[in-house]
Design brief:
Blueprint lengths: L4 H7 L8 H8 L2 E6 L4 E3 L7 E7 L1 E8 L3 E9 L3 E2 L13 E4 L3 E7 H10 L1 H33 L5 H14 L1
Antiparallel strand pairs: 1-8, 2-7, 3-6, 3-8, 4-5, 4-7
């Protein structure tokens, strides 16, 4: 069964409850894309003129940390949104994103969508509210990952593994 772009976009929780006229505006800025394993979808510092709705596959969100190199901050997959750097100037990516396996996505042209948001402030406000939640979630995930990284630099075990092994030990008793 072949679904239209609009029906696929409407089905995603991020886009729920948009009025029909706004949904048509959003859909008019979208198209299907596919990335092979290992492909860098975005690179830190490049122009952020799009965002992605991952339909299938896995993508690592990476920061390059001095003296450590590329470090995965989060891995996202099916149903998740990639990219918030298009929301505010200077519209530059703040991270790298790499396909960990063949990845299918919808790409949204941010220039197109920014223009539509400027013309329809209700659409712009609704998009901003939704992306603010996404930004908060990504920053929280990055914060936790950085806490683990810098804790490891002090010779400690990773927080996530410590909690996991403590749970496993408790269960085994």
């Amino acid at each position: 069964m072949v679904n239209s772009l609009e029906s696929v976009i409407k089905a995603h929780p991020f886009f729920h409850d948009f009025p029909e006229d706004q949904m048509k505006l959003i859909t008019s800025c979208a198209k299907n894309v596919e990335f092979p394993e290992g492909h860098f979808i975005v690179l830190e510092g490049d122009a952020a003129n799009e965002f992605y709705f991952i339909r299938k596959g896995a993508v690592s969100i990476e920061l390059v940390i001095p003296e450590r190199g590329p470090t995965t901050m989060q891995t996202i997959g099916e149903g998740e949104i990639l990219g918030w750097s298009w929301v505010s100037p200077p519209y530059r990516w703040h991270f790298n994103a790499k396909a960990l396996k063949r990845t299918k996505a919808l790409v949204f042209d941010a220039k197109c969508l920014r223009a539509k948001c400027e013309a329809d402030h209700d659409l712009g406000y609704e998009m901003l509210k939704r992306f603010a939640n996404l930004i908060t979630a990504r920053l929280d995930a990055t914060r936790l990952q950085l806490l683990d990284i810098y804790r490891l630099d002090d010779g400690a075990r990773p927080l996530a593994k410590k909690n996991h092994s403590a749970k496993a030990t408790k269960t085994a008793r």
